[in-house]
């Protein structure tokens, strides 16, 4: 991650950190909180490089060529330490070792930098040990705590950190990242609609089950426009055999919902937001023949089916009723 990417993906967080570094007002401790995949770890490494770089551009952007930048990138800078859970938790011995490092003079400068991954996984004793450091911060030291669950952390630790929230990545940002990583442009929008975590999206892109799921859903949509018997046959022959678990079926319903969303985007002239861009020609014809009111009913029927699925309704009966509803039949009973 570089500052340009950081400012695009997390503008608020980037602005706060950038201002602190440029004004030489870096806090002694930060708490980065946000969902998995929002770039917290990459951002903490970027801050470390910005603080230790020997030739930063404009006093902020790390050169990525000096010894310090390279060492931080490789995880072997003597004054930059990372603590991660040992098994299921961060133990007191790990924090004691960290505090001992704080008491040493920096090996190559007066600066020292620490990153604690999954800070909510500290044991009570480890958290209390860290709290003692946070209450009496050393000069020229910076600690960054990363967490997905700040509610599990000691309030006293949170109160001694500057909290910075990382928001879920917008779908278009995830799609752009996926394309840069080699995902086909026609597949990236769907993957980014399924998850805002780049690695999960990449995993889906190589998942044969997901590729088949997409094809089955598109085929079901096509037969929904034909005789009701064809749709029921499609359910029996393909859908029920592929979407065997409730979690899988929920994915299938999302894939189906995205088709109707695309029809809405076409009606609104927002083709650049299509989730199935390779289906645009087919869906454009349907958009001309479908009223906004009918489209709303169909989308609501799918959302209602997702709710019924979580309420443990029989999956096969649920899908049969959904097919009838999508074709203009009665509502759920």
From TrEMBL:
Keyword annotations from UniProtKB, A to Z: DNA replication, DNA-directed DNA polymerase, Nucleotidyltransferase, Transferase
UniProt keyword annotation of Endoplasmic reticulum present: no
Domain of life (superkingdom): Bacteria
This enzyme's EC code(s): 2.7.7.7
Catalytic activity: DNA(n) + a 2'-deoxyribonucleoside 5'-triphosphate = DNA(n+1) + diphosphate
Xref: InterPro entries: DNA_pol_HolB, DNA_pol_III_delta_C, DNA_Rep/Repair_Clamp_Loader, P-loop_NTPase
Pfam families cross-referenced by the UniProt entry: DNA_pol3_delta2, DNApol3-delta_C
Residue stretches making up the DNA polymerase III delta subunit C-terminal domain: 252-326
Keyword Disulfide bond: no
NCBIfam families: holB, PRK08058.1
Stated name of the protein: DNA polymerase III subunit delta'
Lineage: Bacteria, Bacillati, Bacillota, Bacilli, Bacillales
Gene name for this UniProt entry: holB
């Amino acid at each position: 991650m570089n500052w340009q990417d950081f400012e695009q993906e997390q503008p608020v967080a980037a602005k706060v950190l950038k201002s602190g570094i440029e004004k030489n007002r870096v806090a002694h401790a930060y708490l980065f909180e946000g969902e998995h995949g929002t770039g917290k770890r990459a951002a903490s490494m970027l801050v470390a490089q910005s603080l230790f770089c020997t030739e930063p551009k404009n006093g902020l952007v790390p050169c990525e060529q000096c010894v310090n930048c390279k060492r931080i990138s490789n995880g072997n800078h003597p004054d930059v330490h990372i603590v991660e859970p040992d098994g299921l938790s961060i133990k007191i011995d790990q924090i004691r070792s960290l505090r001992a490092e704080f008491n040493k003079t920096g090996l190559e400068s007066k600066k020292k930098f620490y990153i604690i991954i999954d800070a909510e996984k500290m044991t009570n004793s480890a958290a209390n040990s860290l709290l003692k450091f946070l209450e009496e911060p050393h000069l020229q030291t910076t600690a960054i705590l990363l967490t997905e669950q700040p509610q599990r952390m000691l309030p006293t630790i949170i109160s001694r950190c500057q909290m910075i929230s990382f928001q879920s990545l917008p779908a278009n940002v995830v799609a752009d990242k996926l394309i840069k990583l080699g995902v086909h442009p026609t597949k990236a929008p769907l993957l980014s609609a399924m998850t805002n975590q780049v690695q999960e999206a990449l995993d889906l892109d190589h998942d044969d089950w997901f590729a088949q799921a997409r094809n089955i859903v598109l085929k079901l949509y096509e037969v929904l426009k034909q005789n009701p018997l064809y749709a029921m046959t499609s359910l029996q022959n393909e859908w029920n055999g592929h979407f065997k678990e409730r979690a899988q079926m929920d994915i299938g319903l999302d894939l189906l919902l995205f088709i109707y969303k695309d029809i809405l985007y076409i009606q609104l002239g927002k083709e650049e937001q299509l989730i199935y861009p390779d289906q645009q020609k087919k869906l454009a014809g349907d958009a001309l023949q479908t009223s906004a009111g009918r489209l709303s009913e169909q989308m609501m029927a799918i959302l209602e089916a997702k709710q019924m699925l979580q309420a443990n309704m029989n999956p096969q009966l649920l899908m049969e009723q959904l097919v009838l509803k999508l074709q203009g039949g009665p509502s759920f009973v």
